[in-house]
Each structure stands twice: as C-alpha cells, then as structure tokens.
C-alpha cells in the first residue's frame, strides 16, 4: 500500500497574516504531483521550499479568488521561461479556461494567448472528475457564488483528502470529511463571525459530524493565530508535511 504525501506549501489567509503564503497544498503519489489551489504567492512559496514548479502535473482550484487561484498565470509563464516540457492540467469549477484567461488579463495582459512550449489543458470540475492520479469529488460550498466555490474530496491511491476551500459552515462539510485520511479545514477566525468563512468555533460546534481520521486547520487569520494554544486541532504552518 503506497502512501501519499501532503505538504501545506501555503497555509495563510488572503492577506499574508503572520507572514504566511496563500492557499497551496501539494499532493504527491507515485511520482505524480498536484496542487490543490495556487494562490498568488504560491510560486514564491514553492521556490523557497525547494519545490520545482516544473514538476507539478496538475492544479485543482477550489474557487476563483486570487488567494486561491491568482498564482496560475505565474506558474504557467514560469514554465515557459524555464523551458518546461512536462504537460500541465488546470482543473477548476465551471469554465475554468475562461476564468484563467481573466486572471491572466488582470495580472499580465496579453499573455494568455502566448503559445506555451508545453501542453496546458483545462478541465471543468464535475461532480466527479479524474485527472492523472486524482479522482476528485467536488461539492458546492457556502462562499461568494460568483467565485464558483467548491470543497474537494480527493481520492489518490488508497487515501482520501478532504479540503474545504473557503466556506461558511454548510451541509457539504461532513460529506467532505467522512472517513477521510485527512480533512484540511479553513479556520479563518477563532470565534468571530466572518461572512462566508469558517471559524474554529464553527468546527468545534460540529465536531461530531466531522468524522475524518485526522483534521488539520489552515487559512488562519489574526484571531486564530493569536489563540493558537486553544485550538482543538493542529494548525498548519507553511511547509508542513503529512504522510497519509
């Protein structure tokens, strides 16, 4: 039975609170490497941690906010300048190619149409989507609807990773966590209510519904970092590695 390695490359919120990089989770299995989310700071975080961006086979995006998807233009263009030849798959909610084009136009106008020296393919997430070593279930969650928010339940090898992305508490979360080897949950605040986001208090209130083997918190804001000693589950730091 082959294990799966998970690295929280970026564990921070939108604003780099505590000096943390934005959302970026590396999943590795049998030589296949995929990112769950690729926030705007992800390329820098990968290079600081010695991760070759050219080794990434796929990126699966939970939603189209910059701290979760804004690094895609830079990842793609870095591959061009680094003479990458490994294909790259970009997977995300509805009309992923159009959303990536919009990200390019906001960050690097005119660059999306540049012909890359490597194949870039775009795949819309359905209820169940296969890409490389990943079999992905996607669930609509309670975040800004315009961003097409999804929580992910990723089957890789014999393991299951649940990931909330950004969301308020909703009925999808117990389904994402159920039986997962690891459930990676947003805990933006400790107890303060922030619209469309999870607090540690929300997770504690529903802890009996979160039947994962292991829970790790991410996307920590000011309040969560200040109350770290009081958290019910471990809080990831940038670069945290977990074998499942």
How many strands? 13
What's the mean pLDDT score?
97
Question: Proportion of β residues?
Answer: 25-35%
Give the CATH class.
Alpha Beta
Shape: globular
Unreliable stretches: none
CATH architectural label: 4-Layer Sandwich
Number of structural units classed as domains: 1
C-alpha end-to-end distance: 11 Å
CATH names the topology as Metallo-beta-lactamase, Chain A
Q: What is the CATH superfamily classification? A: Ribonuclease Z/Hydroxyacylglutathione hydrolase-like
Largest sheet: 7 strands, mixed
SSE run: EEEHEHHEHEEEEEHEHEHE
Strand order of the largest sheet: 6-5-4-3-2-1-13
Secondary structure: helix percent: 10-25%
- C-alpha Rg (nearest Å): 17 Å
Oligomer classification:
single chain
Short summary:
The protein has 244 residues and is an alpha/beta fold. The strands form 2 sheets. A 7-stranded mixed sheet has the order 6-5-4-3-2-1-13.
